[in-house]
């Protein structure tokens, strides 16, 4: 059976480390790190994620500000809110929870965030720096996956990694990080997406598969080779009347079929998800300490 890549335990350990760093930073006169989050609309999943982020801030000794706006806020008004936080010297990091309502241009909003406060790593300056291997805020999900691979000393050098999904915030940055020099890294990377013709042929060649396409239980047992490392980025809410919440979380990997064939695998929940929180906190502490910019 595989080794479970326990994102929850790893995230808790990282958050404890961050908490200790905050204590010594503030004890020596440093400013308490402060994360601001903007949430537009009332999507249940987005509310849950933002609440987790705010709670995690409290846990590690950060200040946090949550700004909520109705789904019909104008693009102009939202951009003005971003500008106001950009100008607020007390705030170190700003995230705008995605997705945003259809009438708002996401790129306009993420481009408006000052790169120095862009702890989500979505701004072209941070994406460009990350791509060039320069100091940058790296998007929380790919960064969290790299930390998890590092924690479990998963061998990546020379391995063939197949990333399924080419999103700006997961698939593409993941492919870049895994191909870069270093540990983890030094992979040969293939990116697959909705137009890939022979996906199963690709995944069957993979030593490492990162499933980040957002289709529940897409990656089946017959699509992975023996001893593959399987990273499941998917997190879809599927109705389940037997649960108190009315839903359960399902990943992009058919876990029961894939786990017995894999050497390492991330569970859902408790895998990649919690690591994104630790990464966001890490970036915010870097910002308060002005390490990157
Ligand atoms: N929506 C899904 N993932 C993310 C993330 O990492 N950051 C933000 N801001 N929104 C998201």
Brief sketch in words of this structure:
Helix 1 runs parallel beside helix 10, helix 2 crosses helix 10 and helix 6 crosses helix 7. With 293 residues, the chain is α/β, with parallel strands linked by helices. It binds guanine (GUN).
Summary tags:
293 residues; alpha/beta; Rossmann fold; 2 domains; 6-stranded parallel β-sheet; 3-stranded parallel β-sheet
Molecular structure report:
Pathway: One-carbon metabolism; tetrahydrofolate interconversion. Residues 5-120 form the Tetrahydrofolate dehydrogenase/cyclohydrolase catalytic domain. InterPro entries: Aminoacid_DH-like_N_sf, NAD(P)-bd_dom_sf, THF_DH/CycHdrlase, THF_DH/CycHdrlase_cat_dom, THF_DH/CycHdrlase_CS, THF_DH/CycHdrlase_NAD-bd_dom. One of its GO terms (biological process) is methionine biosynthetic process. The chain starts with a strand and ends in a 5-residue tail after the last helix. The chain has helices at residues 7-27, 44-60, 75-86, 106-112, 124-132, 140-151, 171-179, 199-203, 255-258, 272-288, and strands at residues 3-4, 34-40, 63-69, 93-96, 160-164, 188-192, 208-211, 228-232, 236-239, 247-250, 262-265. The longest helix is centred in the N-terminal third of the chain and has 21 residues, at 7-27. The chain has a six-stranded parallel β-sheet. Strands 3-2-4 form a three-stranded parallel β-sheet, with helices on both faces. It is of the alpha/beta class and 293 residues long. A hairpin with a 7-residue loop joins strand 9 (236-239) and strand 10. The structure holds guanine.
């Amino acid at each position: 059976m595989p080794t479970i890549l326990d994102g929850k335990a790893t995230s808790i350990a990282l958050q404890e480390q961050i908490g200790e760093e905050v204590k010594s930073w503030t004890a020596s006169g440093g400013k308490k790190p402060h994360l601001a989050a903007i949430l537009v609309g009332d999507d249940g999943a987005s509310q849950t994620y933002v609440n987790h982020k705010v709670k995690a801030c409290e846990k590690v000794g950060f200040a946090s500000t949550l700004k909520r706006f109705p789904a019909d806020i104008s693009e102009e008004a939202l951009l003005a809110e971003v500008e106001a936080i950009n100008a607020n010297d007390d705030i170190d990091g700003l995230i705008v929870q995605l997705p945003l309502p259809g009438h708002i241009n996401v790129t306009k909003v993420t481009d408006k965030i000052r790169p120095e406060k862009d702890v989500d790593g979505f701004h072209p300056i941070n994406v460009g720096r990350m791509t060039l291997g320069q100091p940058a805020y790296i998007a929380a999900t790919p960064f969290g996956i790299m930390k998890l691979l590092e924690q479990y000393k998963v061998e990546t050098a020379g391995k063939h990694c197949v990333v399924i999904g080419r999103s700006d915030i997961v698939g593409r940055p993941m492919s870049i990080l895994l191909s870069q020099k270093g540990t983890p890294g030094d992979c040969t990377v293939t990116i697959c997406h909705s137009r890939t013709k022979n996906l199963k042929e690709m995944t069957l060649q993979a030593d490492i598969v990162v499933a980040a396409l957002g289709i529940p239980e897409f990656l089946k047992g017959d699509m992975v080779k023996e001893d593959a490392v399987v990273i499941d980025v998917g997190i879809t809410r599927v109705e389940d009347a037997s649960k108190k919440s009315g839903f359960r979380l399902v990943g992009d990997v058919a876990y029961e079929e894939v786990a017995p064939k894999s050497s390492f695998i991330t569970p859902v929940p408790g895998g990649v998800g919690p690591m994104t929180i630790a990464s966001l906190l890490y970036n915010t502490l870097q910002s308060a300490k002005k390490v990157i910019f």
